[in-house]
Amino acid sequence: MARREGFDCYCVSFDYGQRNCRELDAARAVASSLGATEHRIVTVDLRAIGGSALTDDIDVPKDRPTEAMAAGVPVTYVPARNTILLSLALGWAEVLEAADLFIGVNAIDYSGYPDCRPQYIKAFEAMANLATRMGVDGRRIRIHAPLIQMSKEQIIRRGVELGVDYSLTFSCYDPDAAGRPCRRCDSCLLRAEGFRGAGIPDPAM
Questions:
Q1: 97 backbone φψ class: left, alpha, beta (φ>0; ψ -120 to 50)
Q2: How far apart are alpha carbons 192 and 205 in whole angstroms?
Q3: What gap in Å lies between CA 163 and CA 34, rounded to an integer?
Q4: What's the CATH number where 148 sits?
Q5: More reliable by pLDDT, 112 or 45
Q6: In this predicted model, what pLDDT tens digit does every residue of 28-65 receive, in sequence order?
Q7: Distance CA 56, CA 19 (A)
Q8: Distance in angstroms (rounded) separating the CA atoms of residues 188 and 76
Q9: What is the number of domains present in the chain?
Q10: Which of 17, 51, 96, 178 is in the most buried spot, having the most CB atoms within 10 Å?
Q11: In angstroms, rounded to a whole number, what is the distance separating the alpha carbons of residues 135 and 126?
Q12: What are the C-alpha distances in Å from 190 to residues 65, 152, 171, 205?
């Protein structure tokens, strides 16, 4: 979506101590296939904080109905993750003299994450313009979240329109030892629901 708007894309992914690093392999493949100018992986170890099923010795919930997914913040929430990672991305953006940051957060389909809401993105953008040299010098920083109000079905359809190869993508919170998706965690279930709604087979499953 950023490329369609004419941006050169410098992509950043994070090895933040997540128990599953299969998503980083997928990020490399997607960035390459879509023509990123550069893709970096930055390491920051959030295991030192813990408190999440993605970074700590806590079971990932399985087979939950959508009603349960909608009930509060899930245990897969990583404390302050988006704030920490967006701040690192903002730092690289300053080095690149790039005033536009894109993040793929989504506020609907029962995600339950407080740092995926429109008001959070708006607040972070305000902070970015107060806390950076670019912002102080009058070059406005914009945080784009083009997926934030889209359903999973809409996201799938939009990706297909833009030529995303979904066979390269990965969503599972708890893959097996061979890196195969569990098909039972919240992320797998929501992904499956999105592909079903779009009427498109999931090539990665």
A1: left
A2: 9
A3: 8
A4: 3.40.50.620
A5: 45
A6: 999 999 999 999 999 999 999 999 999 999 999 999 99
A7: 8
A8: 13
A9: 1
A10: 17
A11: 9
A12: 10, 7, 9, 13
Q: Scanning the structure block, which residue is given the tokens 């997914």?
A: 69
Average pLDDT rounded to a whole number, residues 96-122: 89
Q: Is residue 188 situated within a structural domain? A: yes
Cα–Cα nearest to 164, from 110, 192, 204, 197: 204
Q: Among 175, 173, 89, which Cα is nearest to 124's?
A: 89
Could you read off the pLDDT of 88-97 as tens digits, one per residue? 999 999 999 9
Angle between helices 81-96 and 118-131 (to 10 degrees): 40
Region at 68 (left for phi over 0; alpha for psi -120 to 50; beta for the rest): alpha
Question: 205 vs 88, which has greater pLDDT?
Answer: 88
For 89, the domain range is: 10-198
Checking DSSP bridges between strand 38-43 and strand 10-15, what pairing results, if any? parallel
- Tokens 């957060």 correspond to 105
Whether the pTM exceeds 0.85: the reply is yes
> What's the CA gap between 81 and 66, in Å, rounded?
23
Confidence of residue 109 (pLDDT cuts 50, 70, 90): low
